[in-house]
Amino acid sequence: MTPQASQVLVETSLPLPLFARGKVRDIYDLGHTLLFVATDRISAFDCVLPTPIPDKGRVLTGLSAYWFAETRSIVDNHFITMDLEDVPQVRPFAGSLAGRAMVVRKAKRIDVECVVRGYLAGSGWKEYRQSGTVCGIALPAGLKEGDPLPAPIFTPATKADAGHDENISRSRMAELIGADLTRSLVEISVALYTYAAGHMRARGLLLADTKFEFGLDDAGKIILIDEVLTPDSSRFWDAEEYRMRGPQISFDKQFVRDYLESIGWNKQPPAPPLPTDAVEATRARYLEAYRRITGRELS
Fold first, then answer.
1. I need a surface site. Which of 26, 58, 220, 278 has the fewest CB within 10 A?
2. 23, 264, 273 from 50: Cα distances, Å
3. Which residues, in sequence order, are bridge partners of residue 71?
4. How many structural domains is the chain composed of?
5. For 134-153, how does the pLDDT look when each residue is reduced to its tens digit (9 = 90+)?
6. Which pLDDT tens digit goes with each residue over 38-64?
7. Distance of alpha carbon 53 from alpha carbon 279, whole angstroms
């Protein structure tokens, strides 16, 4: 039974300096730290939709906090706390932001998205059909959509503040940020994917692909930032529902994308509202991903 939805949050307007407002997150500057608030906004085809998904922000925040703790032995991260009562500047808003906000360390963002793929899907499948490669990496002939790859592959993308991210080669990544940093990020990203994929498989999920974002702290050390291994940043498949060679059922925005495709929307703003069934189906998948991964219900 799907738990009752909490109060929906579409946008915040806190009396704090606004650092950035993204498609989903409102970020405030606390001086030496940042306040990340995950709203219930949802985007598709690079447009924010007018209809929110209840509890989505709490799922994103809770899962990120969970994975930050789980992966700290692989790489340090920017997470400080979700207990907003401990942060004087934020304490007055702790009740309304409970479960959907975290305080994090500031970092110098590395402007490359680190994508790791274990299965052939999404833009990787599209490129493979055309050239037999993914981000310039040659793959065996004859693979079909949804097939597992021989081994996880690292496929970076440019980090775009607006519009589509663009897949790039590893050599292009090295030109942008340097060869040494590229080697380190490849190693860390693949290690994170490998650990998370094993963790999820034990819970009945397949991690098809995911993206990581990294920054440099004040000492120049690489740290994991933003969100991590959530339905917004990853493609999860149900292991029992998995079928090789075809599109899979994902724990993400699939119902939203399917609806928008079905009505013939031209994918230009403004985006159309979502019907109730698409909202509820999407919410249910997000909550199920949270429950499977963490072993507990979203409270």
1. 220
2. 12, 17, 6
3. none
4. 1
5. 988 999 999 999 999 999 99
6. 999 999 888 999 999 999 999 999 999
7. 6
